[in-house]
Amino acid sequence: MSKNLIEAKNLKRYFEIEAGTVKAIDGIDFKIEREDVLGLVGESGSGKSTTGKALMGIHPPTGGTLTFKGKDISTPVTERSMDIKKEMNMVFQDPGGSLNPTKSVFKIVSLPLKIHNLVESEEEAVNKVYELLDTVDLDAERFMYRRPGDLGQGEKQAVAIARAIATDPEFVVLDEPTSALDVSIQAKIMNILINLQKEFDMTYLFITHDLGLMRNIATKVAIMYLGQFFELAETHRFFEEPLHPYTKVLLSSFPTTTEEEEKLKPDLKAKGEIPSAMDPPSGCRFHTRCPYKEETCKKENPKLKEVRDDHYVACHLVD
Amino acid sequence: MSKNSVLEIEDLNVGYNTYRGFSDVLDDLNLTLKKGEKIGVIGESGCGKTTTMKSIHQILSDNAVIKSGKIYFNGDELFALDRSYEKYLEKGPIHTELQDTFEENDLSVPSKSKLSKEGDSWAVKSKGTVRYGIYQTENGMIIKPRRDVLKMKKKELMSLRRRHVSMIPQDPTASLNPLYKVKTQMKDVLKYSGETTEEIEDYKERSIELFDEVALTDPERVLDSYPFQLSGGMRQRVCIAMSVAVAKDILIADEPTTNLDVTIQDQVLRLIRDILEERDFSAIFVSQALGAVRKFVDRIYVVYGGTVVESASTSRIFTDPKHPYTVGLMESIPKLTGGGFSVGIAGQTPDYVDAPSGCRFHPRCPDAKDRCKEEKPDLVDLGNDHYVACWRD
Amino acid sequence: MSSESKSIDDKMEKNSNEKTEDDHIEEEKVEELTEKKESPWKDSLKRKWYRFSQNPLSLVGLSIAIITIFLTLFGEYISPHPEHAFYYSNYQDAFIEPFQTMEYPFGTDEYGRDVLTRTIFGFRYAMTMVVVVLTLSVPTGVTAGLVAGYHKDTWVDTLIMRIADVFIAVPPLVLALSITAMVDPGPMYAMLAVSLMWWTWYTRIVYNNVSSLVNEEFIKSAEIMGDSKLHIMFSEILPNCTGAILTKATLDVGWVIIVGASLSFVGLGAQAPTPDLGTMVANGADWMPGRWWVAIFPAIAISFIILGFNLLGDGIQDAFEEGS
After folding, report:
1. What is the pLDDT of residues B21-76, one digit of tens each?
2. Is the dihedral of CA B202, B208, B211, B212 positive or negative?
3. Cβ-proximal residues to C4 (8 Å cutoff; 6+ apart), any chain
4. Domain A4-225: assigned CATH number
5. Distance in angstroms (rounded) separating the CA atoms of residues A255 and B265
6. Of all helices (H) and strands (E), which one includes residue A154?
């Protein structure tokens, strides 16, 4: 069996709205290997959330190919086979929105079990849910029959995670799962996610804007800007040798708390606002804010090319 | 009362009436903001920092109950008296000459006010509350009003909000009225700030000046737009412009960059810092993220469970945090240098309807002792202006 | 697939083999927990009651509603002259003024029938109409709204909503008038006529609710896991609409009564001598203003019921508002 769980080629997702076309994803290529954690970093308008949703079938691609274990998954989620739905799942950013406020935790977590016929009786369901809540560090007795409204943000997210792994999926998309959480709870949830990944040999697509999180969970990182990849490499390479100017800008804006971290930050600031995804700048989309921009940058859109060992960059000025 | 302080929160106790009972949020919260100082108030959600900020502005919800405490606001100096007035400064009712001076300057002195000495300054007291403080300086005496925000009536509150305390909100989208163009909203702010029409003849001109300061390119276009036509960063900049439009004493920034992208966040924070420095405001930065305020404040107050658990200069907090909560918080922040994630802090934020006894952090503290359950620790001065509320020392 | 990666099941089996004692404890807990299922309801109800009872007017509305229901069910047992309800004549006792005797507190009408008794019986007819109309229109309307909302921007949506538009466009009274004019007038037809268009209101409300919920992440999550459309509509979305539906239904009590009374007033509803409140007002109108009590008391009864259910409806709306 191939070691690539997910393969995307020239993936595109456009949205037609009244004002024009939003090119949320505009031609990206990537592969996610088994048991990898691909981190997708970007700011607003980058298309990172859309990428996660494209993989899950919420916003199916409008161009390019997308496969899961060799099978085509460019269809909307409602048209996918039950097998695939069992193997792929997602955790959303807003813990409140992803849980039905009128249902108890038990109902929420047991739903996937019942849909895929993984339990045969109520008792079995209770047992399984109990175990699942245990794996995410939740006091099952206390929370089993409570509604999401009674839970704290971190607890809600833990429930969302328990639900996502209930069917023992191979692949989970995590769309900024800790952005809405307090820092101390974030650490707890990240630990749970890391442990789960190792214990159940899952593959993650971890979407975030926080480089600190990325550094500590991802095996590979991709930087996205206005629908395209700017840099793609193994995690440690980013922090040892960030190549793309945008990567450097991101790193330098990161709010650090220690002196050692300060030393890692390049000193590069961007100017201006992030352009709209409806009307991206010509040529290299970063040229309007790039401190290094040159003439070619305005005209030609650089392609992602391998400039170091397994380290890809899309910039005219990097060799 | 120190003559340097511009805002003093003293033993504030605020709670809310809920269907489950009384939610006792703020528990003797103490905080001091000195003139020209920039402090950071750090705490996670549920720690009470929003309640505190709302108390300062007196915009608490209907079911809020202020059990006790005072929020003293010491405004700008009003005028200076020369030393000749010293002879009038004696205990007892205010001398008529002094009273005349007050009235000439449009300051209201409630009837039956008394003058009394407090330490090495004087205070004008009415009904037991200090209304004005009179301080000695090299050149003479200055008079500062010292008013308890919690006891202010509507008119005084309005004046407070318009002229003395301004706020940069957390969510600029929610704070700007989507129905009106930016120029209308700017005009409102300038109009109500109290500057007379003689001083601001052209609201538009002043707005453009301000927009230039907050680095908004194409200010004319911004003025003519509706808030939804602007990006998040631009809206926040408009809010900042509104807050600094008229010279005020205190600027409160309530998590001003949480909703912004990280590169814009950086830009906006630096902008706020530059503006603060230029205008010599005193400022309170409320935030969850220690890292975000590190380069922008002189002093940090760490709040947990409705009370201040540690306060020290910024560098001390980062290099030598003492309180177990502060330590836990610092460790939870994922580092660019790697190292994985800490286990966070065990437990969850206290349920204020049934708050933990003694030190509210004790259920989550790795070093909790018996005493921690029984008595609430006071803030202790460890020297170097570093205060911690913990029984461990 | 699962043979290559360690499944959660395998792990659990391993764990359970290692600790048998814990298994026993777990079993007991499992039983306990399976029985405990009802708890989220109670807490939710408590919270709603708290919000409801904050406004004293809501409690007034609740009381009126309870009185109305009581009179509907037990009216015939507590009214002083149940035999006066339908056919009865005693011309000697006709037009006795109200508040004169204990025997006829609200006076008597042109046939000597006790107005109080007839008014109490009137409650029953009014509420019967309400029950019939709502039972017919609420389920249809809600289902139509659910299906249309979930399939927003497809032909299903357009079809259902345009049909609803047609029915909403016609004022209920006019529709009822035209239908009942074609057949023999009577309460049955009146009720059917009203139901025929009443469902559209529920469709509208539920449609709006559902459209806003469809993009919520918990719905997306259900779709991702493979939940069937039917299950999503009725089990995930519908419970989130109960507040709006209940509020509308409560307020509708008043509306249905007015429409019903109006129909009866113009003679298309219940026919005399049935003690229908609207019919009574119509008959009594002939005797105004001299013998005012024949029309006024039934009219007050109508207002009473409507006021009560309106206040109740407002209270229910407050109760379902999440916030504090």
Report:
1. 888 899 888 888 888 888 999 988 888 888 888 888 878 888 888 888 888 887 65
2. negative
3. A1
4. 3.40.50.300
5. 9
6. helix A153-165
Q: Please indicate if any CB of chain B lies within 8 Å of the CB of A177.
A: no
| Option in A184, A213, A215 nearest B44 (CB) | A184
Q: Which of B309, B25, B327, B328 is nearest to B301 (CA)?
A: B309
User: Chains that contact B by 3+ CB pairs under 8 Å?
Assistant: A, C
Which chain B positions have a beta carbon within 8 Å of C54's beta carbon?
Answer: none
CB contact under 8 A, A215 and B291: no
| CB pair distance less than 8 Å for B348 and A154 | yes
Task: Give the phi and the psi of residue C142 in degrees, each rounded to 5.
Answer: -65, -45
By CA distance, what is B62's nearest residue in C?
A: C324
Q: What would the pLDDT profile of A220-272 be if each residue is shown by its tens digit?
A: 999 999 989 999 999 888 888 888 889 988 888 888 878 778 877 888 887 77
Assigned token pair, C108: 């008597």
Query: Over its length of 319 residues, how does chain A's per-residue pLDDT go in tens digits?
Result: 567 888 888 899 998 888 888 888 988 998 899 989 999 999 888 889 899 999 999 999 998 999 998 888 888 888 888 889 999 999 998 888 899 988 899 999 999 999 998 888 888 888 899 999 989 988 888 888 888 888 888 899 999 999 999 999 999 999 999 888 888 889 889 999 999 999 999 999 999 988 888 989 999 999 999 989 999 999 888 888 888 889 988 888 888 878 778 877 888 887 777 887 778 888 888 888 888 888 888 888 888 888 888 888 988 887 7
Residue A263 burial by Cβ neighbours in a 10 Å radius (0-12, 13-18, 19+): exposed
Instruction: Enumerate domains of chain C plus CATH numbers.
Output: 65-80+116-289+298-319 (1.10.3720.10)
Determine contact, residues A21/A36, Cβ cutoff 8 Å.
no
Residue B347 contacts A where some CB pair is shorter than 8 Å: no
Is C10 in CB contact (< 8 Å) with chain A?
no
DSSP B171-212: -HHHHS-TTS-HHHHHHHHHHHTT--TTT-S-HHHHHHHHHH
Q: Domain extents for chain A?
A: 4-225, 226-319
* A106 interaction partners in chain C (CB closer than 8 Å): 33, 37
Q: Which residue did the predictor score with more confidence, B97 or B303?
A: B303
Q: Which of C26, C33, C48, C242 to mutate to test the interface with A (most CBs of A within 10 A)?
A: C33
- Answer whether B17 touches C (CB < 8 Å): no
Strand partners, A204: A37, A172
* ipTM score of complex: 0.82
Decide if C5 and A165 are in contact by the 8 Å CB cutoff: no
DSSP letter for C136, please: H
Q: Do C224 and A88 touch (CB under 8 A)?
A: yes
Distance, in angstroms, between A249 CA and closest chain B CA? Answer: 7
Where is C189: in which H helix or E strand?
A: helix C187-214
Gyration radius of chain B's alpha carbons: 23
Tokens of C226: 């493979």
Quick check: helix, strand or coil at residue A21?
strand
Distance CA C227, CA C241 (A): 19
pLDDT digits (tens, 9 = 90+) for B91-134: 677 777 777 877 777 677 777 888 888 777 788 887 777 778 78
Q: What is the DSSP letter of B34?
A: E
Residues in chain A within 8 Å Cβ distance of B328: 184
**Are C196 and C168 contacting, i.e. CB atoms less than 8 angstroms apart?**
no
How many degrees, rounded to 5, is the angle at CA B276 between CA B270 and CA B280? 155
The pLDDT value recorded for residue C18 is 42
Partners of A250 on chain B (C-beta within 8 Å) are 262-263
Q: What is the pLDDT of residue B76?
A: 56
Q: Scanning the structure block, which residue is given the tokens 């190549």?
A: A243
Please say whether the beta carbons of B43 and A182 come within 8 A: no
